[in-house]
Here is the input.
Amino acid sequence: MFLRILKDSFLRQKRRKSIVLLAVALGTAAASALGDIALDVGDKIGRELKSFGANLVVLPRGGSGPILVAGEDVSALRVPSFLLADQIIKVKDNFWKNNILGFAPILDVPAKSGGRRVVLRGAWFERPVRLESDAEAPASSASLAGLRALNPYWSVEGRWPEEPGAAGATAAAGATAGAHPPPEALVGRGIAAALGARPGADLDIEVAGRPLRVAVAGILSAGGEEDGMVLVPIESVQEAAGLQGRVSRVLVSALTTPETAVYERLAADPRSLPPAEFERWTCTPFVSSIAYELERAWPGTEARVIRRVAGAEGAILSRASLLMAFIAVMAALGAALTVTSTLTTGVLERRAEIGLLKALGASGSTVIGLFLAEAALVGVLGGVLGAAGGAFLARIISTSVFGSPVDFRPAALPLAIAAALLITLGGCLLPARRIADLHPAEVLRGR
Here is the structure.
């Protein structure tokens, strides 16, 4: 009898039920789409943010490369220390290798050009990197490392310099074009304006009392200290400065999880944590835990967090997640209010029917159960439609913003149905209270 009454009741007031169904489907679709995006594109947002530069720097433990002050090398105040170039791959070959998006070794030395002091920076521009564990993978799968991968938004007038050959051959310091072609360079726009450098021209530089001629491949506009530097392949700087096989530091861009307030407690001294908590910390891609693993993988180094970059990434990711959660909650509340308004009006229109059911012996809980079951059916149908609409909406948003669609999760359907039921039953609270307050004698007499 209950199911028969439920069927007959469900098939009536189709216009109002269509409004409830549409409200639930739209609210569920909005919440589902934002949930899918929040779960799937957190890494994509992180990858987009990584294009603004490195968030870690690996230095020799207890020291670093030459200290430059206004172009002068004042590192004689202490014994300089360097990293070994043949161990750079350890930055990538460690526990967090899938989170290391890019890296670039750096070697800065003071130099002179045209009577001006300049900083000559040796670096990788764009080189393929393959780990020993990936030896059987095709060559096309090798990842690219270097400044170009770390800073894709740098503006170059001209072109990026060509890297040395696979054998590592580079132009000798001071060599003429007849013996070896000069190494190509990027010249920062600031020093380029001062020296009159332009793409296609040669630039003479003096390094440690020895001449070095470079071919200007492009003029760099980076918006930072690089605008006052000359950037060349690192092998050329090593040979010119007599620092073969050495680098001063390695810039690293890692995909991380925002640490927010946990950093103060966990990253200060991880060794003092209880074993279980220490394991959770090391297995979570915090920027500090990745720095800790880099130091373990490369003994004798010190991995420092570039807090200006890492802090900005964490703040942006946290605010983006908070914004999506806020919009999802507002969409759900808006749908619940629409459901409440529509069902309340429906209860007022069905006062006589409700009064008659109570007069025939139906209890208040039975009538409310009938009303909630009817709303639940609408909620389930709205959840299915909302899940489909949310997946489609999330795909469109992710493709337009991040260039790739979100992955479909089978668990999204039951979660969407649960959210739709929550919206629908939440919207039924006020109408159900009105049903409980209806007295059959008063309703029937008023009719």
The chain has 15 helices and 16 strands.
